[in-house]
Design a protein that fits this description.
Layout: E1 2-3, E2 24-25, E3 28-29, H1 30-40, E4 45-50, H2 54-61, E5 70-75, H3 83-90, H4 92-95, E6 100-104, E7 107-109, E8 124-129, E9 140-143, E10 146-148, E11 154-163, H5 179-187, E12 191-195, E13 200-202, H6 206-219
Parallel strand pairs: 1-4, 1-6, 4-5, 8-12
Antiparallel strand pairs: 2-3, 6-11, 7-13, 8-11, 9-10, 9-11
Length: 221
Amino acid sequence: MILAAGRGERMRPLTDTTPKPLLEVAGKPLIVWHIERLAAAGVRDLVINHAHLGQQIEDALGDGSAWGVRIRYSAEGEGRALNTGGGSQRALPMLGDRPFLVVNADVWCELDIGRLALPEGALACLVMVDNPGHHAGGDFHLAGDMLLEQGHPRLTYSGIGVYSPRLFEGCAPGAFPLAPLLRQAMRDGMVTGIHYRGRWSDVGTPERLADLDRAIAACGA
């Protein structure tokens, strides 16, 4: 699943007329970078949620056949984004009853998606990265392969993870964030993680978008 429903307030005015996943870096929409890497890893079925200017996303990507994938859309409605948790839960009927990969559309990463898996009994496996300058405090502590709420050093969640549908059991439909579910699962000892040290960017502002565009132009992707 690619999470593509955010309004992109920090990216304005670019996102006033273009949904953030369609903003281009190195001449290619952010979401297309993900689709290409997922297809290269053997992923064939994708679900993309959208809200703000969502029809533009459907018009741009179609059924996914241009990349050798099948895309289905979870349309949340203009101005009705359900946040990371609510959006994922709403899409569960399309995702099935097995663990599924979730990728935030507004990150850029060279991770080999094919290496990710959910260990037996875990509810989530998160890809963690070194803390960027704009998030120096990090999110969670990685102890071996287990993620903990507390502890140091801390790492930043990359926006890429594998989840079990069981993570959402008992959640009422509607808008809610994913983080509280993950923290509870960590307290229950059911969240693992990996530390990815390759190139990654949280493309949250026009400045970061421009920085990434220059970096790719300088050294290639």
